[in-house]
Amino acid sequence: MTAVRPSPFPASTVLGYPRIGPGRELKHALESYWSGRIAYDELDKVGARLREDTWRRLHALGLGALPSGTFSYYDQVLDTAVLFDAVPERYRAPAPEDAYFAMARGAAGIAPLRMTKWFDTNYHYIVPEIGPDTAFRLAGDAPLAEVRQARALGLDTRPVLLGPVTFLLLPEPALDAPAGFAPLDRLPDLLPAYERLLAALAAEGVAWVQLDEPALVADRSAEELAAVRTAYRQLGAAAARPALLVATYFGDPGGALPVLAETPVEAIGLDLVRGSLPAPDVDLSGKTIVAGVVSGRDVWRTDHDRALAALLAVRERAAQVVVGTSCSLLHVPYDVERETDLDPALRERLAFAEQKVAEVVELASLLTSAPDGARRGAGSRATSSSLSPEPVAAPREGRSPYAVRAAAQAEHLRLPVLPVTTIGSFPQTGELREARAALASGRLDESGYESLVRGEIARAIASQERLGLDVLVHGEPERNDMVQYFAEHLDGFAVTRHGWVQSYGSRCTRPPILHGDVHRPEPITVRWARYARSLTDRPVKGMLTGPVTIVAWSFVRDDLPLRDVVFQVADAVRDEVRDLEAAGVSIIQVDEPALRELLPLRRTAQDGYLAWAVDAYRRATSGASDRTQIHTHLCYSDADEILAAVDALDADVTSVESARSHARLLREPAVGGFERGLGPGVYDIHSPRVPDVAEVEESLRAALRVLPAHRLWVNPDCGLKTRKYGEVEAALANVVEAAHRLRGDHQCRPLTVE
Fold first, then answer.
1. Pairing label, strands 115-117, 124-126
2. What is the dihedral of CA 13, 18, 23, 27, to 10 degrees?
3. Distance (Å, rounded) from C-alpha 244 to C-alpha 266?
4. 402-743 adopts what CATH topology?
5. Active-site residues: which are they?
6. pTM above 0.85, yes or no
7. Which residues, 6 or more positions from 460, have their beta carbon under 8 angstroms from its beta carbon?
8. How confident is the model over 381-421, as pLDDT tens digits?
9. CATH architecture of 25-369
10. How many CA atoms lie within 13 A of 123 on its CB side?
11. 537-565 pLDDT, tens per residue?
C-alpha cells in the first residue's frame, strides 16, 4: 500500500464548528440520557443528526473542505484518550459509554477525572491520566465512521484529530506514576497508534487529515520541540497515510513553526488573528498554509482588506494558501440572523459561526481574483486583547493591612473555626427555568416572576439554616448566568437569545456582547441581598462577579485595550460593593474564576497582564470597610500556577477548586505561607455523586496539614446551580458533619489572626 498522493487543498475551510446544535439539541439529549429518560441509541441518533446537519450546512454555504471529527458527546480531549485506550483501570466498564461518562462526570464511588480550561478559553476539557504503563492502542473507529457517514450524504470530509504532542502535553501523570515521569515520555509508544489510524484512513481513501497542535503556541522547551520534530518526521514518513495538516492556533507558534516546516507534513495552520505573519527566515515554499484570518474567538465581522493583505503576504511565500478560521468555531454561537432583538446597527457589526463561514468563502473568492503583489504590507489584525506591559493608571482607595481587617471582621462576624459556606448558587429548578422562559415570552409578568424568585431565596436560606451552614448565600435564583445577569444590568452590553456556546459537556452559556462604554445605572443585587438577610440571623454573602471574569466571558469590543475595558467594569463592580455594604451586607464575594484563564500563553506577556488584572480586582473591592469581609473564588483554572497573583488580590478569603484536581493546590509550597483565609473545595459539584463524611473529613485533614485551622474555610469546589436539591442537601449535610467533627480537635473560637 502506498501513501495517498496529496490533492490540492480546497480554497477554503474551517478548523471546527459548533456541535451543541442551534437549539442546544445535544445538551437536552445528554441530560435526558444521564437522567435515564432516553437510551444511549437515542442519544447517538441525536449526535448523528447534528453531524449531518453541520456537513450539509457547510456544504450549502460553499465551504471547500468540510471537517469531520469535531463532534463530541463531552470533550475532544477525552475522545482522544478513549480512541487510543488511555483509560485508567478504575473507569473501565462493560459498556464503552459508561466508561466515557464516568471519566467525565464520575460514577458510583469513583470521582471523575480533573477538568480545566482549554488554553485561554472558557471551554473546559477533561484532563487524561497517563502513566508509564498506559497501553496505547487504536481502540475505536470513530474517525472512520464519521467519514463513512458523510460519504453516505455524498460529501467528503477531512478528519480532525488532536495531535500527539498536544495530547501528551495536556495530561497529568497517572496517580501511581513515579516522580519525574512526564506523559510526553510516552511519545514513542503513542506514535504507532497514530500511524495505524492514518493507515486506516488512507485505506478508506481519505485525502487529508488535520492534527491539532495548539500547545505549540505556548512556550515550549528544546526537548518539547524535539518531540514535535520526532512526531512529524515519523508520521510524515509513514508508508500509507493521507496528507497532513498540522493546525496551530490561539497564538503564534514561534519556534515550533520552523520545526514543523522542516518535517514532511504537507500543510500548516496558522492563527493570523492572535498570531503574526511567519518570520521571513522560515521556509514555507513547499507547504500549504491554512491562513486563519477569520477569528474563531470573537463575534465581530472581519476586516476584509486587512485579511486579504495577510493572505497575499502568505501566498508569496507558500506553495498554496487556503483561507481558514483562526481556530475552531466551537467558541462562537451559530447564527446572528436569529438575534432579531439586537439593535440592527450592532447586528450589522457581528458575525457568528454561519457568517464566519460565509466570510471565509468570500475571502477565498477574493484571493483567487487578486493579482500577485496586490495590497502588500498591511499585515494581520492586532486584536483588542493584545496585552501592554504597562497598566493604565488606576488610582484607588487602599484597604487596611490584612491583620487589621481580620481583627475587625473577627469581632464583627464571630464565626467559628472551620466555617462552612458555599460558593454562591443553589440549584436552578425546572420551575424556575420555566418561569424565566415565560417571563421572556410575556406569558408571566414581572411581579409573578419576582414572587417565585423570593420563594426560591427563602427555600435556599431555610435549607442552609437547617443543615447548619455558618455563612449563607441567597442562592442566586434571579440569575440566568453569573456574567449575563450583570451584563443585562450594565450599560455597554447586549445579550442574545440564541447565542449559546459550549463550556463543557452539556453546560452552555450565552456570552454577552460588550460593545460600548460600561456604566452601572442603578444597584443590581442589593434588593435580593437585603431580602435574604431579612430571613435569617446568620451572615449572608453578597454575590458579585469580578471585572476580569465579566470581560473574559463576554465577546469584547475590539477598539480599546482589554485592560481599559476591564477597568470600566471594575468601577461598576466597586459601586455595587459600596451599595451592598451600605445595605448591611458584611461579607461580599467578588468571584474571579477567569483570572488564570486570561493569562497569556507566552511568559513574556504574563507579568504585565497579572499586574493590571490584580489592580482591577483591588480597584473593584477598594471601597469596602475593614470589617466587611471580601471573598473571591477561582475554579477549574489551575490557580496553583498563579498563587502569587491570587495572594496579591488581597481578598480576605479565597475559595478554590481542589477536590476534582486531587488537592494539587495543597501540594504547592506557597500555600503554607498563604496569610489569609483559604477554602480548598472539599467536593466536586460537577459530578452527581455525593461524598460521604469520611471523604470530606479526609479532605479537610489534608488541608489542615498545610494550613492553620483559623485560616481554613470549608466549601464545595464551585456553585451548585447545575445540581438537584436532593444531591446538594445530602452533600452539604456530610460537609457540615465533617467540619463539626474536626472542630472538636481545635479550639472552637471566632476567627482571629495569629
1. antiparallel
2. 150
3. 6
4. TIM Barrel (3.20.20)
5. 686
6. yes
7. 426, 472, 473, 474, 475, 477
8. 434 333 333 344 444 567 899 999 999 999 999 999 999 99
9. Alpha-Beta Barrel (3.20)
10. 23
11. 999 999 999 999 999 999 999 999 999 99
